[in-house]
TrEMBL record:
Example GO biological process: DNA repair
Protein name as catalogued: Endonuclease V
Gene3D superfamilies associated with the record: archaeoglobus fulgidus dsm 4304 superfamily
Lineage: Bacteria, Pseudomonadati, Bacteroidota, Cytophagia, Cytophagales
EC number, as in UniProt: 3.1.21.7
Signal sequence extent: none
Alphabetized NCBIfam families for the sequence: PRK11617.1
Organism: Hymenobacter telluris
Enzyme class: hydrolase
Site (Interaction with target DNA): 73
Record carries keyword Cell membrane: no
Reactions accelerated catalytically: Endonucleolytic cleavage at apurinic or apyrimidinic sites to products with a 5'-phosphate
Binding sites annotated in the UniProt record for Mg(2+): 35, 103
């Protein structure tokens, strides 16, 4: 297993290969969610990828994989822990998505290479980072209305890392960033399109459900 320093070096190197402009099918017809669930009492983890119809949000396909984590729990290096079950799940899918929305960050990451970047680069599939909480950066207050955004900026350099996006009026924002082969504007549009009535996109909600069910089945 690679060391923490080696993993950080891999992130810095691979971050140079991330494509931050739109290179995805138009229109997007199949949009996927990716999530990983952890067992609180062991090193077992479950990865799930769920494919939805971009218009109706109906589930078209889903796959999961449960395994023992092969990398320790180190903040900033989650992708090395979460990628293996997600890659295994992806190989079980019958269909292929046009884009994947990850429950995790993309370039809004200390080394500009969060889970969404890692997964997108590994699969060569357009990906979006959509985090529930802020990992890095600062942002100004944003309007209360659904669809309001504020730039997420690096506190040292001022570089734009992503967007704080309010998906429902008056509700705390999500943090959207480029994963791979999408622009930030498109990433925000895709996330918002998946959030009809609740804060989290349906892609994340479905992937979380499938991952939790797979983990529970494997443990019990």
């Amino acid at each position: 297993m690679m060391s923490e320093a080696e993993a950080m070096g891999v992130q810095r190197e691979l971050s140079q290969r991330v494509i931050q402009h739109d290179d995805l099918p138009r229109p997007v017809r199949i949009i996927a969610g990716a999530d990983v669930e952890y067992d609180k009492h062991s090193d077992r983890i479950a990865g799930a990828i769920v494919l939805l119809d971009a218009d109706t949000k109906a589930v078209l396909d889903a796959a999961t994989h449960v395994m023992t984590a092969s990398f320790p729990y180190i903040p900033g290096l989650f992708s090395f822990r979460e990628m293996p079950p997600l890659l295994e799940a992806y190989q079980k899918l019958r269909l292929r998505p046009d884009v994947i929305v990850c429950d995790g960050h993309g370039v809004a990451h200390p080394r500009r290479f969060g889970l969404a970047c890692h997964l997108g680069l590994e699969l060569n599939v357009p990906t979006v980072g959509c985090g529930k909480t802020r990992l890095i950066g600062r942002y100004d207050d944003l309007a209360l209305e659904r669809g309001a955004t504020a730039a997420l900026l690096d506190e040292m350099t001022g570089d734009r890392l992503g967007l704080a996006l309010r998906t429902q009026t008056g509700i705390n924002p999500l943090f959207v960033s480029v994963g791979h082969r999408v622009s930030l504007g498109t990433a925000a549009q895709l996330v918002l399109s998946m959030c009809d009535a609740v804060r989290l996109p349906e892609t994340t909600r479905q992937a979380d459900k499938y991952a939790r069910e797979a983990l529970e089945a494997a443990i019990h």
